[in-house]
Amino acid sequence: MRLQEIGEFGLIRMLTAAQSAGEGVVRGVGDDAAVLQPSPGWQLLAACDMMVEGVHFSRALTDPFDLGWKLLAVNLSDIAAMAGRPRWGLIGLGIPNDAEPASMHKIYAGVNELAAVYGVAITGGDTVKAPCLFLSLTMLGEVPAGRAVYRSGARPGDYVVVTGCLGSSAAGLQLLLRAVEVPAALRERMISAHLRPNPRVREAEMLAASLGIGAMLDISDGLAGDLGHLCRESGVGAEIWPERIPIDPDLPLLAELLGQSVGDFSLFGGEDYELLLAVPPTAVAKLPELAERLKLPLTVIGQCTAAAGVIELVEGNRRRVLERGGYDHFGK
Amino acid sequence: MRLQEIGEFGLIRMLTAAQSAGEGVVRGVGDDAAVLQPSPGWQLLAACDMMVEGVHFSRALTDPFDLGWKLLAVNLSDIAAMAGRPRWGLIGLGIPNDAEPASMHKIYAGVNELAAVYGVAITGGDTVKAPCLFLSLTMLGEVPAGRAVYRSGARPGDYVVVTGCLGSSAAGLQLLLRAVEVPAALRERMISAHLRPNPRVREAEMLAASLGIGAMLDISDGLAGDLGHLCRESGVGAEIWPERIPIDPDLPLLAELLGQSVGDFSLFGGEDYELLLAVPPTAVAKLPELAERLKLPLTVIGQCTAAAGVIELVEGNRRRVLERGGYDHFGK
Q1: Residues 6 or more apart from B188 whose CB is under 8 A from it?
Q2: B250 CA to chain A: closest CA distance, Å?
Q3: How many CB atoms within 10 Å of residue B55?
Q4: How far is A122 from chain B (nearest CA, A)?
Q5: Environment class of residue A106 by beta-carbon count within 10 Å: exposed (0-12), middle (13-18) or buried (19+)?
Q6: What's the pLDDT at B332?
Q7: Closest CA to B211 of B271, B309, B293, B306
Q8: How many angstroms separate the CA of residue A317 from the nearest CA in chain B?
Q9: Residue A61 in contact with residue A153, Cβ under 8 Å?
Q10: What is the pLDDT tens value at each position of chain B, 332 positions in all?
Q11: Cβ–Cβ below 8 Å for B139 and A33
């Protein structure tokens, strides 16, 4: 079956058939706009992330289900980074003529599977013809009034903490792109980190409630780049202890096989969608117990300083200023 | 100045510099998500419309300012069609390498000029590299709880009413695409209807408050197509009196010059962004006074029937069933 045969409205019916009404959805797909019921006493969160064929993914290398999963995951991660609860999503799809409706359906299946985990309802969007496949998702969430966690509240002396381990997603991307022999289990673990990231939604809410976090964001551009955002918005600097950055135990081996350094992945590799937090010194003692409860590593990797905008890597007596930033869409 | 020189974050700073904080914006551009303050006792509306180069517009024929204006206008129109008030927008931009930052800036200027008219704040979004230029806007609005007007509430006997005049946008598009000699003032009026539609935001709110409207939507796919949506969602049919459909007084002449029928434009031409309403018989007498107050034609063009899904054109004793639908993105 091809797009021309089922038409735009047939496609929309097919794609949205599986979408349940969902909590807080007064009216979902099918009218000029969705009607949603906000929670009294909560504020609204809104974020939008897009993925474009040939820029963010290759159709040849990516299962459409994974594409849908990741589209939602990266947007859930933005809501998580504000300590919010994701609620409702709107999907925009640009569809080339050669796309199969079955593939589009699989994209939605990927979105819907992850949406169900977090009680998120897909309540509308737009599908249009386009020269290339692109996906846009606007995620709406909620946060108790005044409880959103920004990038701007870090203070000198706060500890820099990350969740999970870093660099696996970037290593997984290299394994997708290059012919390198690695053990199957390792390959799968890394590629899965790239294609099916787990947004830290519940973890972020619990960390914010427990720690009095100064600042939080998700690591999408890479640790170096996102730490740069945190420092700039908070007017602080940071010293980072590279050997403390949590990585997959097999990342050093893999980096060697790929002819790159571990830091290429752990410092500059993007799309891990782990959280980066500035935790006040008084709250750091709570980290081990929280890590236990969340079943998620929470690692202190450095400390905020008063040297606004300066990020230094400190190893023993060696200090060097971190120059390279994260991924820039239009950079040279 | 080219994109490579200013980079992604430079571009975002440039594009968002003009955006004011706006009412209900706790935190706008610059964090993982915007934080917005919903109005107590109101429900949230959310719609998303996209525009793609080569499908919805040609860069050669469209000033970037107009592109931004129209991007917002079509989304405002969706909120209007629910009888809601537009509040906040998120913009997604896919930008090809050959695009000039100055053009992207002009797109935002067009968005911002129209946004200011309605007190709408642009509170975030995403900019990515892409093979073609595309624009996505998610519009959030509010409506007093329980007061949204759907497509589904029309009843047999309700009158079919449209605002403004129909077909001008489609005629304007033809004037952009084809070399036809027409008087300058007419040309400009038609092209402006296509490039800078005026969403009926305040009009829709007042009509909904005054008329007890059964169903409402905006005319984006063309009268025939959108009336089909209304009939399907409401489980009614309609008879339409073609000679009553309001058109620009010069449309017949223009249609002749273009070698097409008036109905090609007024029935099947899309993108007028006027409103289509089902008005109960008891409220029809209020239309003339409302038209006067709104300085906008409100025209009865037909009546809803019990013959579910059947739309007939009735001229004198002649009745014929309307077969052709509106614009289908993937249709043959």
Answers
A1: none
A2: 31
A3: 16
A4: 11
A5: middle
A6: 39
A7: B293
A8: 34
A9: no
A10: 566 666 766 766 666 665 656 889 999 888 999 999 999 999 999 999 999 999 999 998 899 999 999 999 999 999 999 999 999 999 999 999 999 989 999 999 999 999 999 999 999 889 999 999 999 999 999 999 999 999 999 999 999 999 999 999 999 999 999 989 999 999 999 999 999 999 999 999 999 999 999 999 999 999 999 999 999 999 999 999 999 999 999 999 999 999 999 999 999 999 999 999 999 999 999 999 999 999 999 999 999 999 999 999 999 999 999 976 544 555 43
A11: yes
Nearest CB to B47; choose among A46, A124, A330: A124
The 10 Å CB-count burial string (b at 16+, else e) for A219-247 is bbbbbbbbbbbbbebbebbbbbebeebbb
- Please state, in angstroms and rounded to a whole number, the distance separating the CA atoms of residues A310 and A232: 9
Q: Show residues of chain A in contact with B81, CB under 8 Å.
A: 32-33
Q: Measured between CA atoms, how close is A182 to chain B, in angstroms?
A: 32
Interface with chain B: mutation pick from A1, A14, A25, A136, highest number of B CBs within 10 Å: A136
Show Cβ contacts of residue A21 under 8 Å, excluding neighbours closer than 6 positions: A28, A121
Give the dihedral of Cα atoms A222, A227, A232, A237; nearest 10 deg.
-150
Task: Indicate the pTM of the whole model.
Answer: 0.93
- Asked if the C-beta of B85 comes within 8 angstroms of chain A's C-beta atoms, the answer is no
Using a CB-CB cut-off of 8 Å, the residues of chain B touching A129 are 52, 55, 329-330
Residue numbers in B near A208 (CB within 8 A): none
The answer, for A218 touching chain B at a CB cutoff of 8 Å, is: yes
**Looking up tokens 């029309």, which residue turns up?**
B154
In order of their start, the domains of chain A are 3-144 (3.30.1330.10), 159-321 (3.90.650.10)
- A279 and A302 Cβ atoms separated by less than 8 Å: no
Does B329 contact chain A (CB < 8 Å)? yes
